[in-house]
């Protein structure tokens, strides 16, 4: 009776191994396959008879032998389980994803457990791999991370223009100012606003006014470098921080921007409307003690441009 019970128990265990929704692979110490369950058959397209006694590396050439053998041998030596997780390595073997998440994952994400198996003589002569399909978990986590990244990005940008919002832009300015003070690197600031914007808004309406702001912002983004910090400072007022740029380069940038805006055509019914901008430009210098001083100097230069008749660029006077 006890022997019969053991045989039945083994039969049940084999049924369980074949039915569970994880991959089960048992290998000898030469990495040759001895157990290959239905999960492995279904996802690899390789039957258990075909897989039997073949090397794991022959069946899956994508597995890096040196890395995998080191992982297995460490588990065998310590007599403990070892693991690989999808965050560190998306998968051990390349299986197509059949999760109902259309188009979000071509391959199955996997967690893998490496389990040393001891014989009745306490010798570890086999190793079991348990392969878990965690595609759903991985995709959900990556979607959440992407959503959080987008939310963070939205929190840093102005909703109308896509430029940096004032609060975040001032944080960037403060960091760059501290960097300048430490390394004595050059840096310049361009501050500008749209000429007679209130009159434009009152005449043509806020919807067209918003379109003008968007178009000026678009031109600003086109002309700014990836390393520059372009922001919307107020209603129709903009700022561009130019790191590692001396005053001459900042003046050239400001003039390119002024001319580009002047060429802008705003279609309104049967009219083509034009807008201009006035700009103030300054650079970091040793006499400044806070980043706010840089804003104040640029704002003063901008005011001088308005006094000159607008649609011009004024360089702040040297201290």
From TrEMBL:
Reactions the enzyme catalyzes: 2 GTP = 3',3'-c-di-GMP + 2 diphosphate
Gene Ontology CC annotation, any one: plasma membrane
Location(s) in or outside the cell: Cell inner membrane
Cofactor: Mg(2+)
A Pfam family recorded for this sequence: PAS
Protein species of origin: Halopseudomonas laoshanensis
EC code: 2.7.7.65
Matches recorded under CDD domains: GGDEF
InterPro entries, per database record: Diguanylate_Cyclase, GGDEF_dom, Nucleotide_cyclase, PAS, PAS-like_dom_sf, PAS_fold, Rev_trsase/Diguanyl_cyclase
GO biological process: cell adhesion involved in single-species biofilm formation; negative regulation of bacterial-type flagellum-dependent cell motility; regulation of DNA-templated transcription
Domain GGDEF: 185-318
PROSITE patterns per the UniProt record, alphabetical: GGDEF
Gene Ontology MF term list: diguanylate cyclase activity
Protein name according to UniProt: diguanylate cyclase
Xref: SMART domains: GGDEF (SM00267), PAS (SM00091)
């Amino acid at each position: 009776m006890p022997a019969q019970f053991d045989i039945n128990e083994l039969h049940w265990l084999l049924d369980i191994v074949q039915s569970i929704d994880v991959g089960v692979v048992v290998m000898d110490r030469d990495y040759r396959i001895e157990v290959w369950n239905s999960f492995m058959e279904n996802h690899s397209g390789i039957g258990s008879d075909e897989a039997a006694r073949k090397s794991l590396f022959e069946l899956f050439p994508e597995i890096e032998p040196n890395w995998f053998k080191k992982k297995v041998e460490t588990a065998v030596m310590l007599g403990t389980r070892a693991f690989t997780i999808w965050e560190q390595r998306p998968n051990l073997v390349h299986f197509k994803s059949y999760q109902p998440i259309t188009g979000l994952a071509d391959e199955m994400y996997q967690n893998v457990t490496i389990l040393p198996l001891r014989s009745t003589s306490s010798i570890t002569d086999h190793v079991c791999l348990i392969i878990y399909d965690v595609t759903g978990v991985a995709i959900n986590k990556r979607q959440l991370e992407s959503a959080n990244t987008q939310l963070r990005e939205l929190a840093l940008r102005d909703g109308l223009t896509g430029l940096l919002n004032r609060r975040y832009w001032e944080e960037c300015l403060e960091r760059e100012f501290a960097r300048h003070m430490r390394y004595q690197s050059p840096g310049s600031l361009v501050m500008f606003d749209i000429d007679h914007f209130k009159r434009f808004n009152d005449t043509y309406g806020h919807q067209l006014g918003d379109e003008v702001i968007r178009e000026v912002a678009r031109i600003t983004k086109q002309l700014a470098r990836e390393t520059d910090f372009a922001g919307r400072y107020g209603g129709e007022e903009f700022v561009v921080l130019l790191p590692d740029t001396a005053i001459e380069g900042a003046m050239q940038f400001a003039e390119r921007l002024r001319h580009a805006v002047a060429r802008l055509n705003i279609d309104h019914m049967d009219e083509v409307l034009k807008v201009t901008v006035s700009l103030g430009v300054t650079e970091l210098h040793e006499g400044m003690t806070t980043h706010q001083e840089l804003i104040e100097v640029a704002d003063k230069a901008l005011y001088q441009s308005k006094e000159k008749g607008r649609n011009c660029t004024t360089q702040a006077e040297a201290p």
